[in-house]
From TrEMBL:
Compartments reported by the entry: Cell inner membrane; Cell membrane
GO CC, any one term: ATP-binding cassette (ABC) transporter complex
InterPro entries: AA_ABC_transptr_permease_3TM, ABC_transp_permease_HisMQ, MetI-like, MetI-like_sf
One Pfam family per UniProt: BPD_transp_1
Transmembrane segments: 12-32, 44-70, 90-107, 149-171, 191-212
GO molecular function list: transmembrane transporter activity
Name of the protein this chain belongs to: ABC transporter permease
Originating species: Malikia spinosa
Keywords: Cell inner membrane, Cell membrane, Membrane, Transmembrane, Transmembrane helix, Transport
Amino acid sequence: MTGYYLTILEGAALTVAVSLASLLVAILLGLAGASAKLSGRKPLVAAATLYTTLVRGVPELVLMLLIFYGGTIGLNALMEALGSEQTIDIEPFAAGVITIGFIYGAYMTETFRGAILAIPKGQMEAAWAFGMGPLRTFWRITLPQMIRYALPGFTNNWLVLIKATALVSLIGLQDMTYRAKQASAATREPFTFLLFAAGLFLLYTWISLWALRQVEARYSLGTKRGQL
């Protein structure tokens, strides 16, 4: 029995890796999407709006299967069209990270967009008046305040993203959920091992909440809690 618990713990490490890699993709897409929506350029606004609308309207599982199976077929068709006999297989880890990051990038887009809009325009105008360029204004003025305003929505998206990582078990990635199901099938004790996996998910969530509270405390200095 101990061996099954150890293998689930190994799967938990993979779950953490998938979630963190997906979060990075989601943050990058979220920043790009928010910038596009606030750019005022119609093509960029339309593209970002289409992205967020489509992602929120299509089930996560459908997108994951589409990227995992459809992506492989599409890449191989492209290689064949280019005259290459080489075949390409998308790894389950990459498919999971891309899919989850792509999905939650849409939610991060709205979170970051709202946070940027919450920053008083006068502060950025003052930065420009002092001769700060766009990049310096972003790092010194926009980003610190954006983090503060975005944290509540960011935290919610992150916690939901953690739960969404369980979907990668459906495409063969041996994460915590996959190994818990394998242990359950082998021992015919599903309650024991699935409960253990659920406990690990809760522990990961608790650690995440604690870490994000530290970030909130850091970026909320001099600000009343009711103002966040």
